[in-house]
Specification:
By secondary structure, this protein is of the alpha/beta class. The protein has two domains: 171 residues, Phosphoglycerate kinase, N-terminal domain (Rossmann fold, 3-Layer(aba) Sandwich); 195 residues, Phosphoglycerate kinase, N-terminal domain (Rossmann fold). 35% of the residues lie in helices and 17% in strands. The chain has 15 helices and 17 strands. The strands form four sheets. A six-stranded parallel β-sheet has the order 5-6-4-1-7-8, with helices on both faces. It has a six-stranded parallel β-sheet with strand order 11-10-9-15-16-17, with helices on both faces. A three-stranded antiparallel β-sheet has the order 13-12-14. Helix 8 links the parallel strand 9 and strand 10.
């Protein structure tokens, strides 16, 4: 168990500089943040620290700048949005590695907030460079990591700095992520059902193998189901199939037995287009020249029924090409089934990424027990891998 923010003496936070790693990697268009979900997710941690008189210095990356500063990836738009959300001015540290930045953090008033420029503007960030981490460390008196979405990367602002600046604790968002993902893996209410989708089996092999001993069922959708259909000797038409993974799919089916539940059919079309002619077909009747782009209504009902009987459900990956209606039907059906299961007392966890986007699109985010803010991080956590940004924090 990692040490948490609440374990620190609240009275001792007064006037101290909290160096907080957040994940403010928000979408920006024309210099404006278009979705502030990640900013709002950090608010409980920021409020807790501000209410206790700490002085906050926030670190985050934004986008993927190539080896140095790029104006389109500046944190300035994020600073403006954070000011709007907080209703308070925010100081911008143009060069957080400078002596001037250190001096600025020491002049901050109690409860005030500063945001550093994009950590990825510094080449040492992604190399986990100790020298850069030390420059970050002098900006604070203790360290809080609330950026679960970046915890699977050993970077200077997530891993090295946590080993230099003590205490190093988890923020409330990080704590929530570790709690719900951890409980799903190690103390699930039964039956424990995993719903996995996406295009390629190659990206989910480790997850399937890690979950098989733990779950009661894995419901498998998305284009990767077609690789399993091929392994069953079925016609797949023009569907996306990973030819070099067919043998692996066959082996996984043998190993999993009845735990691995495949769609009974799919929605097929000749091309991926919103106005394309579509048909629901059973999996043993996929016509040549057509491709599967979603699960069919019968599979939707089957998967929803299995989710409805579950005590714990973890979902990672869409059931079809949900960005192109009508091939969003299967994914939205899973989202609705998850929300219904939550209402009936199940613990439901969405593993970030496309699944989180689909739940938001359906307007059901608030009806899920936990929606992870970290797609890649949640995937690695569920695979049983150690996350460097978590491992570096103090033990509770």
């Amino acid at each position: 168990m990692k040490r948490t923010l609440e374990s620190l003496d609240g009275a001792a936070l007064e006037g101290r500089r909290a160096l907080v790693r957040v994940d403010f990697n928000c979408p920006i268009k024309d210099g404006t943040v278009t979705d502030n979900t990640r900013i709002r997710a950090a608010l409980p941690t920021l409020k807790y620290l501000r209410d206790r008189g700490a002085r906050l210095v926030l670190l985050s990356h934004l986008g993927r700048p190539k080896g140095g500063p790029e104006p389109i990836y500046s944190m300035r738009p994020v600073v403006r949005e954070l000011e709007r959300v907080l209703g308070a001015p925010v100081t911008f540290l143009e060069d957080p590695t400078s002596e001037q930045a250190v001096a600025t953090t020491r002049r901050l008033t109690r409860g005030s907030v500063a945001v550093a420029e994009n950590t990825r503007f510094y080449p040492g960030e992604e190399k986990n460079d100790p020298e850069l981490a030390q420059r970050f460390a002098v900006l604070g008196d203790f360290y809080v990591n609330d950026a679960f979405g970046s915890a699977h990367r050993a970077h200077a602002s997530t891993e090295a700095v946590a080993r230099m600046l003590k205490p190093a604790v988890s923020g409330f968002l990080m704590q929530r992520e570790l709690r719900y993902l951890g409980e799903a893996l190690h103390q699930p209410r039964r039956p424990f059902v995993a719903v996995l989708g996406g295009a390629k089996i190659s990206g989910k092999i480790d997850l399937i193998e890690a979950l098989l001993p733990k779950v009661d069922e894995i419901l498998l959708g998305g284009a990767m189901a077609c690789t399993f259909f091929k392994a069953m000797g079925l016609e797949t038409g023009n569907s996306l199939v990973e030819a070099d993974r067919v043998d692996l799919a066959r082996d996984l089916m043998g190993k999993a037995g009845p735990k691995l539940v495949l769609p009974t059919g799919g929605m097929v079309a000749r091309e991926l287009a919103g106005n394309a002619e579509t048909h629901a077909v059973s999996r043993d009747a996929i016509p040549g020249g057509w491709a599967v782009y979603d699960i069919d209504p019968a599979s939707e009902r089957d998967f929803a029924a299995r989710i409805g009987r579950a005590g714990t459900v973890v979902w990672n990956g869409p059931m079809g090409v949900f960005e192109t209606p009508p091939f969003d039907s299967g994914t939205l059906a899973i989202a609705r089934a998850m929300a219904e299961a939550t209402s009936n007392g199940a613990i439901t966890v969405i593993g970030g990424g496309d699944s989180a986007a689909a739940v938001a699109q359906a307007g059901l985010t608030d009806r899920i027990t936990h929606v992870s803010t970290g797609g890649g991080a949640s995937l690695e956590f569920l695979e049983g891998k150690e996350l460097p940004g978590v491992a570096a924090l103090d033990e509770g």
